[in-house]
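Please, structure for the following, as tokens.
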Amino acid sequence: MNTIKRLMFIMAGTALLTSCGGGKDKDGKVLDSPANGEITVAVDQSFQQIIEAEKTAFEKTFPYTKINLVYKPEGEAVAMMLNGKARMAVIARELDANEKAIFKRDDFRYKSYKFAGDGIALITNKANRDTLITTKDLEAIMRGTKKKMSSSGKDIVLVFDGTSSSNLTFLIDTFKIDRKIKASFFAAKSNEEVIEYVKTHPNAMGVIGSNWISDGDDPTSLTFIRSINVLSVANKPNPTKDDYYQPFGYNLALKKYPLTRQIKLILKEAHMGLGTGFVNYMTLEQGQLIVYKNGLIPLTQPLQIRQVKTE
């Protein structure tokens, strides 16, 4: 798409946000519109950094809007949406059969949008000298058959941001593991608490969303990445050094990093309201530029990747 066509497309999207929607419901209550009103969005805590960046930019562009972000483990975020306490859920999967059945029972349709690609980052204490891991070893740790740190010989403590977080669900589904995990497991309350736990426990291995450590311009992200090790992961049984990759932009975009996933926007909205406006913004060019700036992969706008030859 050339520059003129792209500009016309953005202008058309902006016109849609500002002119459509609104009105009143059957009880006479004024409804929000794509560029006016207030809604609540339930967000899996792994995606706090990127969604806060999108909210800030959206509200600055559309000053008559207010997006209330509530951070919950993935299962609780979906429950909030199903119970009408949130207009949208930001999670790392599609709805399951039971969740879809609730929509069917209530005769209510939902919409699912792909938004961004990110990775599951594995982190350890700075005292841990071994910064390489294979997916086979990670699966063994999850199943409880590998229990010792390679470098220290101490028992590994896996640290997640809750028992129903998207990070835990992703690994369980990836390795097809029963939810009754036998490994030594510690449940923190947030990705930030996972990082803090790892910083003070040499035998801990934390599991977080890569967007917490991907934004090179964010002081918080820089502080986090300097205080822990980010493990490189290989998906081969007998890997060489070149088979290991870290969960950052280039490796995610080329699908070289093994533990990648998509962030989904699940919208429950009966009219063209503020939820539609926020989704449109995040999936159009400006919102996808924010995704790229935060070190994640835009999924709804073209991403050009160029390999530069070096002498």
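DSSP finds eleven helices and twelve strands in the chain. The domain at 119-260 is CATH 3.40.190.10 (D-Maltodextrin-Binding Protein; domain 2).
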